[in-house]
Amino acid sequence: MIPEPAPSLDAAFAALADPTRRAILTMLLEDDMAVTDVAEPFEMSLAAISKHLSILAAAGLISQEKRGRVKWCKLEPDAMKRVSVWMQGFGQFEPVNLDAFEAFLEREFAGAMDGAEGSFPEQQGERADAQRDAQ
User: Fold this and answer.
1) Which of 99, 98, 123, 129 is nearest to 110 (CA)?
2) Partner residues linked to 63 by β-bridges
């Protein structure tokens, strides 16, 4: 059975899937911001930005606090840390070197073919055709 990620990770990845929300998080890296300041660079309504902020808050990626009449948004680094820690688990995988993999397969096939000329069956057929044509 495959272990499922924690629900907080699901919500975090769902929130991070949207480019607008990722841009908001990048803005909040600098400092806490008022909702109106967050909305300023985007060409969408304040209601749409508020919806994005609600999704980020529900995922635990940001917190919102009312200071006087202004609602402020703050990045929550612990939530991002959980996402980062989960992602680091995949750092053990390196890109596959296809040339080295092909050489490995050729060595394996060569050993399995017990001295046959080609490494791969299709190469043996090509060589047999070439020998027949040469005769």
Assistant:
1) 123
2) 74
Confidence band of 50 (pLDDT split at 50, 70, 90): very high
The model scores a pTM over 0.85: no
DSSP secondary structure string, the chain? Answer: -PPPPPHHHHHHHHHHTSHHHHHHHHHHHHS-EEHHHHHTTSSS-HHHHHHHHHHHHHTTSEEEEEETTEEEEEE-HHHHHHHHHHHHTTTTPPPP-HHHHHHHHHHHHHHHTTS-SSSSHHHHHHHHHHHHHH-
Q: What is the mean pLDDT of the chain?
A: 81
CA separation for the pair 50, 62 (Å, rounded): 12
Task: For residue 62, list its beta bridge partners.
Answer: 75
Gyration radius from the chain CA atoms: 28
Q: Can you tell me the distance from the alpha carbon of 112 to that of 65, in angstroms, rounded to the nearest whole number?
A: 68
Q: Answer yes or no: is pLDDT of 79 > 70.
A: yes
